Amino acid sequence: MNSHGRLKGTLFIFLCVGAWALIPVVSKLGQTRMDNHQFLFWSSLISFLALGAWSMIKGCLEELIHLKAAEWLYLAVLGLLGTYIYYLFLYLGYAVGNGMEILVIQYSWPILIVILSLFIHKEKLTLKKVLSLILGFTGVLFVLTKGNLRDIQFDNAGLIILVALGAFCFALFSVLGGRVKVNPFAANTVYFLMAAAASFVSMLLFSGWETPGAEEIIPVALNGVVVNGFSYVLWIVALRDTSPGFAAPFTYLTPVLSAFYLVFIFQEPFFPAYGIGLFLVLAGGLINSLDRGKRRLP
User: Fold this and answer.
1) pTM of the predicted structure, to 2 decimals
2) Are the beta carbons of 227 and 20 closer than 8 angstroms?
3) CB-CB contact of 12 with 234 (8 Å)
4) Is the Cβ–Cβ distance between 51 and 128 less than 8 Å?
5) SS (H, E, C) 87-107
6) What does DSSP assign to residue 34?
7) CA distance 270 to 260
8) Could you give the 3-state DSSP secondary structure of residue 284?
9) Separation of alpha carbons 183 and 63, rounded Å
């Protein structure tokens, strides 16, 4: 990867981190009456409409007409992995589980990205990469436990398994998504079309029809347009300009920012462990960014 591509990709990664850190906030505000099926459907529908409209204006959708059936199937599977299964289980976790436990399990996906990249992209497991992952995950644990690692107990095994499965699906989506040559806006339009369709079916089968209330409209819209919609475009572009292994450690900044969001938005107390966690996460990302090895995606 060249230096300009690395710089642009890194910038996009940080923009994604800032958007994704809002997930606990919008999940909490957007599920006051709706459940995870309903919240996912409306968020995905808004993402699909926003990305579809933008893609139409830019003329990106014409590219989809010329795709082969196998390419359509590939995009559809990616959409189910990264925009449906992942969020279906994640929103369920935030709705009924312990938020601290869910965040820890959710951010197993950067580790899974590195592991999957070893087999799929044949990336090398360098010492810098291992160290950056260790520092990043340790920083997350400091933030989520406020420095007391004994606070994590994982009582709800079934829910934890579902969230872990969702994390694996998103890691697989990220690794395989870097190979997609379709315009990112057009590709993500397809992804969220699949999420909207799948969540609509699961909503009717396992939940019921429900529209967002007045207090849920803003978080649902924010989630649909920014947190999910356009952030996915930035993420795919970032993966193309860098590599999954390069990008993964930076994502550990996300839950640290989530803690700061909760402090400012919900007036939760600030703990010194937050500062320690932030330092460890940034150190991990910096160490990884200094790895100049060749990691271009095939």
Assistant:
1) 0.79
2) yes
3) yes
4) no
5) HHHHHHHHHHCCHHHHHHHHC
6) S
7) 8
8) helix
9) 8
Q: How far apart are CA 42 and CA 200, in angstroms?
A: 9
270 close to 140: Cβ distance less than 8 angstroms: no
Tokens standing for 258?
A: 């989530």
In the predicted model, residues of the chain with pLDDT beneath 50 are: 292-298
Phi/psi of residue 126, nearest 5 degrees:
-80, 160
Which residues are within 8 A (CB) of 35 and not within 5 positions of it... i.e. 6 or more apart?
A: 92, 95, 207, 210
Q: What is the maximum span of the chain, computed from C-alpha positions, in angstroms?
A: 55
CA distance 259 to 132: 21
- 127-152: per-residue pLDDT in tens? 877 887 788 778 777 776 777 766 66
Distance CA 29, CA 24 (A): 9
Q: How far apart are CA 218 and CA 46, in angstroms?
A: 12
The closest of 92, 91, 86, 88 to 108, measured between CA atoms, is 86
Identify the pLDDT of residue 294: 40
Q: Are 92 and 203 in contact (CB under 8 A)?
A: no
Predicted confidence (pLDDT) per residue in 263-276, tens digit: 777 776 667 877 78
CB-side neighbour CA atoms (13 Å) of 195: 34
The identity of residue 92, as a single letter, is: L
Question: How many angstroms separate the CA atoms of 43 and 217, rounded?
Answer: 10
Measured distance CA(40)–CA(202) in Å, rounded:
10
Angstrom distance (rounded) from CA 296 to CA 245: 10
Q: What percent of the chain has a predicted confidence (pLDDT) above 90?
A: 28
Contacts of 272 (CB under 8 A, 6+ apart): 147
Contact 277, 101 (CB under 8 A): no
